[in-house]
Structures
1.
Amino acid sequence: MKNISKDNIRLEDILDTAPIAVAWSSVTSGRIEHINKAFSALFGYVLQDLPDLNTWFSDAFSDASYYQQVVEPWIQNNQARQQDSVSMDGISARMLRNDGTIRKINLCVSTLGEKRLWYFNDITEHWIAERRLRARSKMLEMVAKSSALKDILNVIVTQIQQESPLSLCSVLLFDPVEQCLRLGAAPDFPDFYNQAIDGVKIGLNVGSCGTAAYLNKRVIVEDIATHPYWQDYTQLAAEAGLAACWSDPIVSSKGDLLGTFAIYKRLPSSPTQKEIELIDFASNLASIAIESYRAQEALQKRAYYDHLTGLANRGYFFQHCDALLKQSRVEGFPLAIIMMDVDHFKVVNDKYGHKIGDFVLQKLAQVSVSVLKHTDVIARIGGEEFAILLPFTDNNSALKSAEQLREVIASSVVLSSNHEQVRFTVSLGVAFRQNGECTVDEILNKADKALYQAKAAGRNCVFSMGLMT
Ligand SMILES: Nc1nc2c(ncn2[C@@H]2O[C@H](COP(=O)(O)OP(=O)(O)OP(=O)(O)O)[C@@H](O)[C@H]2O)c(=O)[nH]1
């Protein structure tokens, strides 16, 4: 430490003890003549690194248009002011440190003779806290308004990317049925990377996210190129320009896995304490968003789906049928309806009990879904009564679908509590949208009449308004 005698105190020494970053420049040449210790700590430079003031400023302000439109006029205005002005209005701006990270500063200037003193007050922490609060409020508002989950997650990802420049962030959603991760939000990743990741099964050595989800704990990979967790994905990561990945499992309030939040870096690196806090913040926000979305989804499911079979319920079917009938009238595509009813179901219940009867309904739903097209909608509209809507389906195709349903159901088996094979059949009635007007009630009535004909004809058969197949 320098030994400063009492009567030999220089301005430089005084400024070095100041907690605020200060630089002074020559009024005439603009050369930066001194920076204090707090300046070096804030921006990472020593005096020799810095060119003249204007050159440094034009590089240091991270937002070029803000620099040109706001900062430059402010500097010029101050330079035009008379000398020995001691106090001036400050300006807020984002400035780059020598490591590329961004600091938010309040900049003030005063002129003293030939020297111009610049004061850089670091308000980054306050700025980050404020922005996080804003991001959090915006996200909660979006949750309350039931915005699309992808949009909400994009707000979180964007916030973190702004706080941690030179990073890419992603949220992947856990699919518990398929035990895989699906794309939630990864707005700045290349499409080929997102496509490759979407649907990846979780497991050990499935990158940072697949492994974090599998182990249900944070995974920090500092160098993707050499880490065993990435051994099957190093080329993919290299093509996307990714060198490090820190991934956190997103967990619900009950401890269930909801997905992963990850920060990727372009160069091998380990997270700072601040970046760990950032990951925690993002995972917590994402957890609120995903959990509330899932709760809403479950509510909707309860409103529209039949709890026993998992098929759509009567309400959903009628709504959907009405909309599709209108659309088919406008666009002129063919549409058919099948009504399907279990034969002698009372006998099944009486002989094997209600529980086995329930298994029969579940099995019937399962095999029906397996033979229908993904555009068809099957619903349980009564106890043992089902309706199927077949858009873009003409007369012959609908009859074929009905026959296929009949066959696959007739060959299905459920085991009774005594391990007896319980077999069951269905009767089916088919109706089509004719040219001209046709309401939901009209087409369902037609299908119902055909169903009664099938029952009357001895069951386990398909009828289409008097035509038996
Ligand atoms: N296990 C079970 N049975 C149900 C459910 N909903 C309705 N049922 C039963 O379904 C049976 C319907 O009987 P019916 O209307 O006489 O018809 P069916 O015995 O199938 O005879 P047909 O339709 O004429 O071939 C009744 O025994 C109801 O109790 C359910 O959710 N689970």
2.
Amino acid sequence: MPGQPAQYQNEIYLHGLADQVPPFTTDATLVESVARERMAPGPFGYVSGGAGCGDTMRANRAAFGRWRIVPRMLTDATTRDVATTVLGTPMAAPVLLAPVGVQSIVHPDGELATARAAAALGVPMVLSTASSYPLEEVADANGAGQRWFQLYWPNEPEVCASLLHRAKLAGYSALVVTLDTWTLAWRPRDLDQAYLPFLRGTGVANAFTDPAFLAGLAKPPEEDQAMAVLRWVSMFTGQDKRWDQLPFLREHWDGPIVLKGIQHVDDARRAADAGMDGIVVSNHGGRQVDGAIGALEVLPEIVSAVGDRLTVLFDSGVRTGADLLKALALGASAVLLGRPYVYGLALAGEDGVRHAVRSLLAEFDLTLGLSGHRTPADLTPESLRHA
Ligand SMILES: Cc1cc2nc3c(=O)[nH]c(=O)nc-3n(C[C@H](O)[C@H](O)[C@H](O)COP(=O)(O)O)c2cc1C
Ligand SMILES: CCCCC(=O)C(=O)O
């Protein structure tokens, strides 16, 4: 991404939104309503929906509202520098694209478009185990970009080892192990529409290209697709994992390991005790436990308990530049963007992802400067007040 992120603002003022970029809003809090009009109901419900009545999704947003930025004046913030390095990965801004499975349900190019956009933006993408393209093809599309691999930890060790081996060979530099989704929550929007992408054969690309997975099938997927899909899905269902099994992942992965879905300070301590390199404080965008605490609420206590022992990342509910600033001020090293870039993908493919992320980064850059900060490292809890 050449120059300051906020140059995007000038491009838009000078040339107009429709000339430069896909003609949809630069406001990530509104893009969902644009997407609702243009997306098919099944995929829209799947992406936008959460667990139960959506209480946790609302709590995620409300938590941001309770922290307020307190701007400082006459500071040196004319030129900002938002680039950073997290767990050895350089990034143009403290942002990664969150692992989101089954992206071909919103756009035929799916993760390939996301991978190209991420490379152009200079931000890493985290590829889901449940991607709609094989991890090697996504790596090719990402090219010289930065990429991490998200693991849904299969209950067959050979398949797990095989996926990790493939991810390493394909240049994924860090591993994100998602702990909060060992079964899908009660999701009324998907239940009402009987819409589950996996059972329709999406999100199985990494299985159907995996030698260890294929070796365990009685019949190849071409002969019995339904059985193969069920086997893949059942491989991730069930809570058979415990803290003492983390060394298995270390044996099979020599890069950084990050545990995603941490919400309790004691779990954060256990991750640090287990020698993990990082955690993502996250409630999966409110898609798993309805009635849960807003993810940002638990960030400060987790940072103060383990921030000196591992890297703390954050997601769930980030929609604006101010949200990003707040999460960083409360101690996150970087933030994972979820639904906003997926709506960008749905609305305009690769260009849509770029537009959605550039808009958010431009807003972040301007908010950072106007509140008196030059770099993300200048942000501290003192930049905020809890209201
Ligand atoms: C449609 C969709 C699919 C997702 N798939 C995955 C996944 O495959 N693996 C994973 O770890 N998280 C997955 N997530 C969760 C995201 O990584 C992230 O935690 C969440 O989107 C953050 O919340 P936000 O979208 O409200 O910002 C998914 C989220 C959405 C919206
Ligand atoms: C096996 C679940 C993958 C998708 C996912 O994480 C979600 O829908 O939230």
3.
Amino acid sequence: MIRAIALSKTYGRGEAATKALREVDLEIGRGEMVSIMGPSGCGKTTLLQLLAGIDRMSGGEVWFGDRPLHKLDDKELSRVRLERMGFIFQAYHLVPVLTAAENVALPLIARGLTRQEADRRAVEALKQVGLETKARRYPYELSGGQNQRVAIARAVAGEPDVIWADEPTGALDSDTSEQVIGLLRMLNRHLNTTIVIVTHDPRVAEQTDRTIAMHNGRILDHGDRAARNGPADPAAGLAREVSSR
Ligand SMILES: Nc1ncnc2c1ncn2[C@@H]1O[C@H](COP(=O)(O)OP(=O)(O)OP(=O)(O)O)[C@@H](O)[C@H]1O
């Protein structure tokens, strides 16, 4: 579903040039939950941003299904991001003057949904992450873990093919971090959404199907695909699982 071929990125020029990615080949299958680990500065965020079409590569190709992201212009790329991808960041990136529900609805309205339909979907997504009672709260009225769940609701509300998460638990304590990753794991199983997580935390990586290990702009190890712990049980209902946490 996502394929990188000889993907390279150099920041700056001449003496100041930094080779952040060096001819990386990579494949991520539909429905996989993958982590990317490696020392600080090895190129994890750069890789994520190129795969997601946020930044431009210096060389190589990125295929998103049958779409060549390396050939799309900025407008086409932002359309793909808006319609097919969800994003979660360490610092949540919520709009402070909007409520949880408004934050979740915002990208849906940008996609052209009516306000009413966007609100309906936002409430549904907040329910999926166990936050239906907090829909009218502002980010400053919520805990870090709750804000990250709002960000997850925003990422899943548009039913994306893939969610990109850059250090999603970096600002959270270990219990909250576990809950957030558990939630992503459930969404991955329940909705079959592909999830790619950059993390420093081995406990986060343990929850994923495989871990890609990077070093100095290269992939050292693509990771073995771990056997999943049994199929998801849709009948159990995701909302019930989450709200019982
Ligand atoms: N905008 C930029 N301009 C110049 N150099 C950059 C830029 N962004 C990243 N780099 C450099 O590219 C290399 C890879 O950076 P990247 O952020 O991808 O690493 P990372 O593995 O995500 O690091 P961390 O774990 O610390 O977040 C680093 O040497 C970094 O200093």
4.
Amino acid sequence: MSVLAASPVPLVVRTVEIPAPDDLLALLPPHGISWVRRGQGLIAWGESARLETAGAQRIDEADAWWRRVTRHALVRDDVRQAGTGLVAFGSFSFADASAAGGSLVVPRFVVGLRDGRAWFTVIDGDGLTDLPSLEDALGDASPPAPLPPIAIDEGDRDAWATAVASAIERIGAGELDKVVLARAVQATGDGPVDVRTVLTALAADYPSCWAFHVDGLVGATPELLARVDHGLVTSRVLAGTIRPTGDETADLAHAAALARSSKDREEHEYAVTSVTNVLAAHCASVNVPDEPSVLHLPNVMHLATDVTGVLSHNASALELIRELHPSAAVCGTPTLAAAHVIDELEGIDRGRYAGPVGWIDAAGDGEWCIGLRSAEIDATDPSRMRLFAGCGIVAASEPEAEWAESEAKLEPMRRALGAHIDA
Ligand SMILES: C=C(O[C@@H]1C=C(C(=O)O)C=C[C@H]1O)C(=O)O
């Protein structure tokens, strides 16, 4: 069942060009929305409209709602590129049955920066009479607060080993080929956690990832589910992981070994196939590189494939993610069997971890990632959050190695929360 917000009121939208800010993220007011990569992207705050949704149709409902909102909006846009004019930010639960559901939020104010060009958008539900200045819209927000001491659980190693061993057994029995198992750890601060402080750390440590905060889900994800930009679609598939040692020569040798590893290649191919099949149905042609590349991040190296295509009938970013989710990078192969094994073995509600998170504009362009390397902030207590990490399990997986991999994937959030990690 889904809960639709009151039917959308016509929104009045104005986008103007502004001087490029030195530091986009530094403008973010408390609790603001963030979508920042390599210093560029969108930040937003306030709320002009919202959809809350849940269930198997959650992304379809968001798509239908967004079409209604955009059809009725009055937009004056001086900049006219992806992310200007009317935009909404959203995040959706991984599982159809999760109580976390999903939401689309139309903010009141947006600042965007792309290729040196910056803009300010104001979205108003009550008719826009005067355009406020950016300074007035920002108000005098307090600077980001230092983090309180935060205790982070270690997690249950035995429970993990048992779950991974059962998954390997079921793969061996022919029930499925791959399943992604995840675990959650609880973080509890002595006081509220200022999400801006966390985002600043994530953006500094992981500049090539998307430092995001949408409706209480915060993280730095490397995985692009779909970017739609003027008829072009791009998806970056990641699957197959090892941990760097810090020794550059050794790491290059490890990266080469990762690219040759049959276990990692198998895991990767399942994920690439699941994304390519969906995009092929919407594109005249899809380009898939023959060989994956290796994406180097400070905490992990991943096999990566950028799948690209030219859309043949203008599918919107929401239409595409509805079909792309859940890809084999976060669920498994075959999808239904893997979802079933996840339900049985994981013992957690993933909430919006590993679900789609991103933004869409009125033209249907947008950028949606998979909500990885992330934490869900407790809606009733901002000093508490759950951190998540998962690993693709195939026949050749080993529970100990998968534990180490999940630890590496928890590292970005642990470090951003002030934990000191031994290399
Ligand atoms: C599930 C996660 O990551 C996914 C799983 C990967 C793997 O198993 O190798 C790699 C990248 C992601 O697609 C996570 O970070 O929690």
